[in-house]
Amino acid sequence: MTTNSTFHWQDTWRVLLNPQLIIMLLLGLAAGLPYLLIFSTPSLWLREAGIERAEVTFFSWALLSYSFKFVWSPLVDRISLPILTKNLGHRRAWLMLSQLTIIIAIVLMAISDPALPGGLIRIALAAILLGFSSATQDIVIDAYRIESAPATMQAMLSSSYIAGYRIGMLITGAGTLFLASILGSTLGNYQFSAWMFTYLIMAIIMLMVGPLTTLFIPEPRVERNVSITTSLQYHVELLTVFITAAITFIGTFWSIGIITTYWNQSIGWLVGELLRLTVSVLFTWFAIQILITFNIVQSSILQETYVAPIREFFHRYGSTTAWALLALISVYRIPDIILGVIANVFYQDVGFTKIEIASIVKTYGLFMTLLGGFLGGALTLRYGVMSILFFGTSLSIGTHLLFLLLAQAGNNILALYFVISADNFSAGLGTAAFVAFISSLTNVSFTAVQYAVFSSIMTLFPKILGGYSGTLVEVLGYQQFFLFTSLLGLPVLILVRRAQLLLANHRT
Fold this sequence. Notes:
Elements: H1 9-16, H2 19-39, H3 41-48, H4 53-57, H5 64-67, H6 69-78, H7 84-88, H8 90-110, H9 119-148, H10 154-182, H11 192-209, H12 211-216, H13 232-267, H14 269-293, H15 299-317, H16 319-331, H17 334-349, H18 354-383, H19 385-409, H20 413-440, H21 447-466, H22 469-476, H23 478-487, H24 489-507
Helix pairs in contact: 2-9, 2-10, 2-11, 3-17, 6-9, 6-13, 6-21, 8-9, 8-11, 10-11, 10-18, 13-14, 15-16, 16-21, 16-24, 17-19, 17-21, 17-23, 18-19, 18-20, 19-20, 19-23, 19-24, 22-23
């Protein structure tokens, strides 16, 4: 990637006046709102309700929907929705459906008290529904962004979307902590009503930002390469593939969890989880093959929707380079996600209040992330995406070591500001380069499915490992845990350098 020598600042001001930027800002806000309601905020809620750390961090698995969204992305592309599609158009119909489901899931979480018998199960199921509907919304927004503006606008639209996404995360990160504290819930004085009203307020905000925005935005007017079919048989077959894959994978993954309790004692939890994931994928593949064998589903559907985009990627880069790129995508965010799952609990354990966490970690941290992202984008244009990926990973290794100092310093506000400044800045810088990296790997003929595959792989393995963050802290303690997450960055550095060399050889 090289610097654009024809760039002029007046071009930027003309782009900033485009109304599509406001639309993407609002859609980014709607996409960012649900994320921390699953990933981070519940950790403090459940801890105040007396739930153990290990069970708290298992909730990060509710975000596995983001990692498997490529499975049902063809449904979003190809299936029309009764009534909604006719009145709103294809993209807006799916946006409306996903956003209304998000609101329902948030309300279900709000009325579930984890401290009561059965409450933890109900809130977990609601979190899974929230994760699924949020991931579906992401699929639609990505497609909407690509279809609503030319390629020259995509970088600015992505920036506006990310800014909105971060603001949404701020509202459900810092905002929920402020509200729950003001309404009277603390670590030593749990009040379910405080968290209930907090989540209900988040549902109201989502209603104002999501469905209302969808009602007023225009439907993209494009000729899609993928046809939208209303054939009942096609709908049934595509839905059958998705439902079979989802039930088989989830059922196998859940069932094998009992066995891995013994595996992990003998071969280690990391190897045990790899085996668990591999077996689940194989069972899912066998289940789909059974559908094809008995002519329940035509193999051409699978070839067209899933195989063709993957085959094109491997053909374009070659097997060696393609596998190296996928390996890098799958592990790049492991250190940050594993640490992020337990971070709020750590801040509270060392003595920081929810107000301090909200104002420093969430609010101030957001601005440092945006600053890092802006600089990361500029540096990527100047030095190339792979160089900044390597630089961002190196910074991340160092900032994770800073958490060791914070663990020793304890309740020290200045130390918290210093660590958050460094960690969020490096995360923003690295994320900007990484988004540019995976975007550059997609082929315009398969943008929706390939991007969904890449973004799913990006979070799959990190989210699975993140579910064990609480267990690792219980076993290792915070200082050894932070050392562990820092060392996880070293293999990432090796993969970045290898991918850089393979891509250079591929271009020549």
